[in-house]
Design goal:
- The protein has 12 helices and 20 strands.
- By secondary structure, it is α/β, with parallel strands linked by helices.
- Among the domains are: about 200 residues, ANL, N-terminal domain (Rossmann fold); about 100 residues, ANL, C-terminal domain (GMP Synthetase, Chain A, domain 3, 2-Layer Sandwich), CATH 3.30.300.30.
- β8 and β9 form a beta hairpin.
- The radius of gyration is 22 Å and the shape is globular.
- Bound molecules: zinc ion.
- The site of zinc ion has 7 residues, from loops.
């Protein structure tokens, strides 16, 4: 069997398993999750250095509540302990996907996902699409800060997707979205909102002829922005919550509830002391992606704030628990001369693609000067100057030519306890009446 066909067969098998997983009763879902977590823990103790050498009990957990007795992990802790120690040693390169993430903080972490966990995740994404009412032949305009690979089913004409680079001026984004004649637009809430402002009424009318739904990702979607997008585009809006380290955590059903993908991940909400809180109480998100074997992260703290909804039936038929994000990643932006906004997601895309860059952070001062604080990879082959040149070249190509960024070498990027940092911050607000004649044309530093 060719490897392409093997992948297709494996993914179809996952799709069948995932399709009905959320329709089981809540008790069965929890039993399966507990078994999944115990299998993962037993694997971790046997195979993964960090857990083998750490203080993890030998006996299986007898309830999901016992999970909270194990320590949680933050991104800084994983980096400090050594990322390699979380990976299964000796894994053949074909058995896992590598995903370099800057997360929402600018701190890079190379996450590995084994092909089975990754494949099952794909199946849950398929479930999300089909349950929302998406039809596999609808064209997708996906606004993304970096390119995505073409998948086997896309070569067959299913889920036809046009990736529209997010770093372009809004007028160019709008033109490309229109030209796609999409049934579905996917992107960050902040970019979709900007897009909405860019379209003329005539263009919106044209867009609505094909558009059936909007999907948002990667930052907090407030009720206000959700309503604005739904009304502006004239179609339903579906949100999701995910992170590179654990992939999708939850997705919104057609009744507006954000259901946790409990056939892949187990979600806990904890207080400041790390103790689980009951449904209805706000706390920090801790996630265990229990199908992961390449780089298992037991009780990974994502740093976002959320609460679980009280147990109860959702009209959509899913028995997966429902959650609500309280606050989360906000897509901050800097403003270029001329007023164009460049969002943090775009800088994250640049950071991800710049070789030799370990961490970075972007600041714009009140005069408009944009400074990239940059940490080269320790022990890397590239000098600071080479990394700077690579970053500036990418910025020129993908965002705007002629804007000189200033670069400073940084020792470390400040993070909060939850591992979050403000990746982009701007004190420059040209629309608040400050229009400096000079200073908003940044010079090379
Ligand atoms: Zn539902």
């Amino acid at each position: 069997m060719s490897s392409g066909l093997a992948v297709a067969v494996r993914e179809l098998r996952h799709a069948l398993a995932a399709w009905r997983a959320d329709a089981a009763d809540a008790e069965l879902i929890r039993t399966r999750a507990l078994n999944g977590i115990n299998e993962m823990l037993s694997y971790c103790r046997a195979r993964v250095p960090y857990y083998r050498d750490g203080d993890y009990p030998d006996e299986p957990l007898t309830s999901l509540a016992e999970l909270a007795r194990l320590p949680s992990l933050t991104k800084p802790e994983v980096l400090r302990a050594g990322v390699d120690r979380f990976r299964t040693p000796g894994l053949a390169p074909g058995r896992y996907h590598r995903d370099v993430t800057s997360g929402s903080t600018g701190v890079r972490l190379e996450v590995w996902h084994d092909v089975d966990a990754y494949g099952y995740h794909g199946a849950t994404v398929l479930r999300r699409f089909l349950r929302s009412g998406y039809r596999p032949w609808w064209r997708i305009a996906h606004i993304k800060p970096y390119p995505r690979p073409v998948r086997w089913f896309q070569r067959l004409g299913l889920f036809p997707r046009v990736v529209i680079p997010a770093g372009q001026p809004e007028a160019a984004l709008a033109r490309q979205v229109l030209a796609t004649r999409p049934g579905l637009i996917m992107g960050y809430p902040v970019m979709l909102r900007a897009l909405l402002h860019t379209f003329t009424d005539a263009e919106l009318t044209r867009l609505r002829r094909t558009l059936r739904m909007v999907m948002t990702d990667s930052e907090l979607l407030t009720d206000e922005v959700a309503a604005l997008l739904a009304e502006g585009f004239g179609v339903p809006v579906f949100d999701e919550y995910s992170a590179h380290e654990v992939l999708t955590v939850s997705t919104q059903c057609r009744h507006g509830a954000l259901h946790v993908d409990e056939d892949r991940v187990w979600l806990e909400i904890v207080d400041d002391q790390g103790r689980p809180v009951p449904p209805g109480t706000t706390g920090s998100v801790v996630v265990t992606h229990y199908r992961e074997r390449a780089m298992p992260l037991v009780r990974y703290a994502l740093g976002d704030r959320a609460r679980l909804l009280p147990d109860g039936d959702c009209p959509c038929g899913s028995a997966f628990r429902r959650m609500r994000l309280v606050d989360g990643r906000v897509n901050d932006f800097v403003t270029l001369p001329g007023g164009r906004r460049v969002y943090s997601a775009v800088f994250l895309g640049l950071a991800k693609q710049t070789p030799g860059l370990a961490e970075c952070m972007v600041r714009q001062d009140a005069s408009g000067q944009i400074t990239v604080h940059l940490i080269p990879e320790p022990g890397g082959d590239l000098s600071f100057d080479q990394v700077v040149t690579a970053f500036q070249n990418r910025f020129d190509e993908e965002v705007a030519a002629g804007v000189r960024l200033r670069f400073e070498r940084a020792e470390r990027v400040a993070l909060t306890a939850g591992g979050k940092g403000r990746f982009v911050e701007s004190a420059y607000r040209p629309d608040t009446g400050h229009h400096p004649d000079t200073g908003h044309r940044p010079d090379a530093g």
